[in-house]
Amino acid sequence: MPAPPRGADTTMDGDPRHDLLPPGAVLDTRLADGEWHRLHPATPLLRGGIFLIAIAGYFISEARQQLVNIAIGGGDHGDPGDPVQFVTTGGRFPLFILGVAVVLILIVAVFWLSWRVHEFRITDEVVEVKSGLLRRSQRKGRLDRIQGVNIVRPFFARIFGAARLEIDVAGHDANVRLDYLSSANADGLRRDILRLASGLRQLEAQGAVTEPYPRGFVEQRVNELIAPELDPNIAAPESVVKVHTGRLIGSILLHDSTVFSVLFIVLIGSVSIGSHHPIGLVVLVSLVFGLGTFWFRRFTKSLRYSIASTPDGVRVGFGLFTLSNETLPPGRIHSIQVRQPILWRVPGWWEIRVNRASRSNARGAEGQRNTTILPVGNIDDVLRVLGLLAPEVTDVNALRLGVVGSGSDGGYTNSPRRAAVVRWFSWRRNGFARIPGVVLLRRGAVWRELTIVPEPRVQSVGLHQGPLYRALGLAELHVHTVNGPVRARLGAVDRDVALDFFEDVASDVVHAVGADATHRWRDGMANPGQPNPGQAT
Amino acid sequence: MVSNNVVSKRLELPGLTWRRVSPRYVVVDLVSTAISWLVFAALASLPAYFSGVQWLWIIPAALIVIMIVVLAFVPRRVRSIGYQLRDDDLLFRRGLLFQRFVSVPYGRMQLVDINRGPISRAVGLSDLRFVTAAASSGVAIPGLTVADAEELRDQLVALAETRRAGL
Question: Nearest CB to B9: which of A457, A473, A483?
Answer without folding.
Answer: A473
